[in-house]
Design brief:
mainly beta, 6-stranded mixed sheet, about 5% helix
Length: about 80
């Protein structure tokens, strides 16, 4: 995922699963140590967005302000 120039967009994005379900809003963007490319985001989940869940960006697609991931929500460890 070549998103180095789009970190600002990632930080304001909403994460959507492969079925189109909203998972939550991005909390933090984590960069790969050697490439500087975004590799993970945390997503604010739970009541009032008080929990954070790590989501890998390996197969993710960014479109406008939405990050589409390939996993369904039910396979993610969201508390």
């Amino acid at each position: 995922m070549n998103l180095r120039d789009q970190i600002d967009t990632l930080q304001k994005a909403t994460v959507i699963d492969r079925d189109g379900n909203k998972i939550g809003s991005v909390g933090q963007v984590y960069l790969h140590n050697s490439t500087g490319e975004p590799s993970w985001v945390t997503v604010n989940t739970g009541l009032f967005g008080t929990n954070e869940t790590f989501i890998p960006l390996d197969d993710a697609k960014l479109a406008l302000s939405l990050i589409h991931i390939s996993e369904p929500t039910r396979l993610l460890s969201i508390s």
